[in-house]
């Protein structure tokens, strides 16, 4: 939980974020989520026709990947407000994915 690094360190809670820092954990999270978006695009492109709404699945996941990259680029790992904004935007991406799901 990136916004809680300071408290985690203060109370001796060992997390990836408290051990590795916001910058490294944010990068790992973005790479993992980005890989999922790339996989979703590939799945849509290489599945049997009619399995997915391919234009929507490809377009939406490409847009989500761009939003993710933009969010990571704007992150200042030394600024608590920036970390909170980054974290909230990651949750926004998850909510968008859930909203998209019924239409795929």
TrEMBL record:
Indicate what this protein is called per its UniProt record.
Answer: Uncharacterized protein
| UniProt keyword list | Membrane, Transferase, Transmembrane, Transmembrane helix
Q: Where in the cell is it found?
A: Membrane
Concerning Pfam families, the annotation shows: UbiA
Residues spanning the membrane? 25-46
Q: Name one GO cellular component term.
A: membrane
Q: Which InterPro entries does this chain map to?
A: UbiA_prenyltransferase (IPR000537)
Keyword hit for Transferase: yes
Family listed: Belongs to the UbiA prenyltransferase family.
Task: Please indicate if the UniProt record lists Nucleus as a keyword.
Answer: no
The Gene Ontology terms for molecular function here are: transferase activity, transferring alkyl or aryl (other than methyl) groups
Membrane topology type, per the record? Multi-pass membrane protein
**Gene3D superfamilies according to UniProt:** UbiA prenyltransferase
């Amino acid at each position: 939980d990136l916004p809680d690094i300071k408290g985690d360190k203060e109370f001796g809670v060992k997390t990836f974020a408290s051990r590795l820092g916001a910058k490294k954990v944010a990068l790992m999270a973005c790479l993992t989520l980005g890989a999922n978006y790339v996989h979703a695009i590939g799945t849509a492109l290489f599945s049997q026709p009619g399995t997915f709404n391919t234009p929507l699945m490809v377009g939406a996941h490409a847009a989500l990947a761009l939003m993710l990259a933009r969010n990571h680029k704007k992150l200042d790992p030394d600024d608590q407000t920036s970390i909170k904004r980054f974290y909230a935007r990651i949750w926004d991406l998850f909510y968008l994915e859930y909203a998209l799901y019924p239409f795929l």
